[in-house]
Design brief:
The complex is a heterodimer of chains A (279) and B (149).
Chain A lengths: L1 H9 L1 H18 L4 H6 L5 H17 L1 H17 L24 E11 L5 E6 L12 E3 L4 E8 L4 E8 L4 E5 L5 E5 L7 E8 L9 E4 L11 E9 L6 E8 L8 E7 L2 H16 L1
Antiparallel strand pairs in A: 1-2, 1-12, 2-5, 3-4, 3-12, 4-5, 6-7, 6-9, 7-8, 8-11, 9-10, 10-11
Chain B lengths: L15 H5 L7 H19 L4 H20 L13 H4 L1 H24 L5 H26 L1 H4 L1
Helix pairs in contact in B: 2-3, 3-5, 5-6
The chains are: A alpha+beta (279), B mainly alpha (149).
Chain lengths: 279, 149
């Protein structure tokens, strides 16, 4: 015992280094654990506050560009207004609103921090629990999909961007509905990889990729991007395609957070079925 | 610093400069805790729990062995600091270059954590190390301007 203590004291630098390194690894491994994700990320009020100040300054310089995007979207929405459509001259026309239940609700939010050059990129948004944001909600920009919420504090939330090692979103080709999944290979913030497209699909350059119903987080039919190139590796029954993302994740500023009101119901049904089958 | 985008292969992390410029006489144990603190703060802002902490510790750990290796024959003078003015450019290139390279190699391989990306990560390590070194070199002219003119 005495020798051990003497040894530890003699090599205290290395011992302490290893001890601290263990702490660092513990933080890394626990990144998804509740404490880890709650303490050490940018939805933490102090850090998010600092980012908010920086974002406010930056936003001022991007106002013109941002205005254009929002004006375009306004014009698009204006086209959908009721007053633009002629009334149908039928006397017995009733619209039973109760037949439809709203499944998705949108909350507008601002991105206060984002990055594109790491292997795991995150966004910080200026909305949180007080605004009704929860974990696993989808984030889209006016141009396309952006990411998924992973953690919320009272007034901020942090989200995995599409440019994240562990994110993969279920997508489909718009023209023939073949499913595939999209993930990021870490090379450029403008492109993602679409894998598992079956070879009988007549995939072409320029095809539109949209989100599919299977993802459960994103509503179906949101634009993801367009096919830039595709290839089929030897002995691989699937195509791998390079997709140019329609949203510019480096400049993203105004976003919408989407809540799927039926998500809990769907998830609980799916887990129930799963556990019943397993038993 | 994470808002500076120079392509996805050039990602400088100039906070290493802080560790490089720690005075020679800071005790070994204290310097480990300084690195821990710096790493945790960087991790908070980068959303990368533990990654920068671990890398900063490796950087400060390797610093002692590199300082020993590049020390002058009669040891370090009491009044000098480990920067480019006091020690000269050649010394600084060996000293900072090797620590930055060790730090970046460790950091980027730990970040990717996949062997399938071996070569793209290697390219990232080399280009980022060079850019970090250049930024660190230039930053010193800002910090020490008044003192030496």
């Amino acid at each position: 015992m005495r020798n051990l203590i003497a040894f530890l004291i003699k090599h205290n630098f290395i011992v302490l280094f290893l001890l601290l390194q263990v702490i660092a690894f513990w933080l890394m491994v626990n990144r998804n654990g509740y404490q880890g994700s709650h303490v050490l990320n940018t939805s933490n009020a102090a850090v998010a506050g600092a980012y908010q100040t920086a974002a406010n300054t930056k936003e001022y310089f991007a106002l013109k560009n941002e205005n254009d995007i929002l004006a375009n979207e306004n014009a698009m929405l204006r086209n959908l207004l009721k007053s633009n459509y002629a009334a149908i001259p039928l006397k017995s026309y009733t619209l039973k609103d109760t037949l439809y239940m709203q499944q998705y609700t949108y909350t507008s939010a601002k991105v206060v921090n984002t990055s594109v050059n790491k292997r795991r990129n995150y966004l910080t948004l200026n909305v949180g629990k007080n605004q009704g944001i929860e974990k696993d909600m989808a984030i889209i920009s006016p141009e396309g999909i952006v990411g998924i919420v992973v953690d919320v504090s009272a007034n901020y939330s942090s989200a995995m961007s599409l440019l994240h090692k562990d994110v993969s979103v279920n997508c489909q080709l718009k023209k023939d509905n073949n499913y595939g999944s999209i993930s990021w290979d870490g090379s450029s913030y403008e492109y993602c990889l679409l894998t598992d497209i079956p070879t009988h699909s007549r995939i072409k350059k320029g095809d539109t990729v949209i989100t599919s119903e299977l993802s459960g987080i994103f509503p179906q039919g949101l634009i993801v991007g367009t096919i830039e190139s595709f290839e089929r590796k030897q002995n691989d029954p699937f195509y791998t395609a390079k997709v140019k993302l329609s949203s510019n994740l480096k400049k993203v500023n105004h976003v919408y957070v989407i809540k799927n009101k039926f998500k809990n119901e769907r998830d609980s049904l799916e887990t129930k079925t799963q556990t019943q089958l397993d038993n | 610093m994470q808002h500076i985008y120079l392509g996805s292969y050039i990602v400088p992390y100039p906070y290493v400069l802080f560790l490089l410029l720690l005075p020679f006489e800071v005790p070994k144990i204290a310097s480990l805790f300084i690195a821990l603190l710096l790493g945790v703060v960087i991790d908070l802002f980068c959303n990368s729990s533990g990654l920068h902490t671990s890398s900063a510790l490796v950087a400060i750990f390797s610093r002692y062995y590199i300082l020993k290796y590049v020390s002058p024959r009669d040891g370090y003078d009491a009044a000098v600091q480990p920067n480019v003015y006091d020690m000269g450019l050649q010394w600084f290139i060996t000293y900072a270059g090797s620590i930055i390279f060790i730090h970046h190699t460790y950091f980027f391989y730990l970040e990717a954590f996949r062997f399938t990306e071996f070569f793209s990560v290697l390219l990232r390590v080399i280009l980022s190390s060079v850019s970090t070194f250049l930024v660190c070199y230039l930053l010193q002219f800002l910090f020490y301007k008044n003192q030496y003119k």
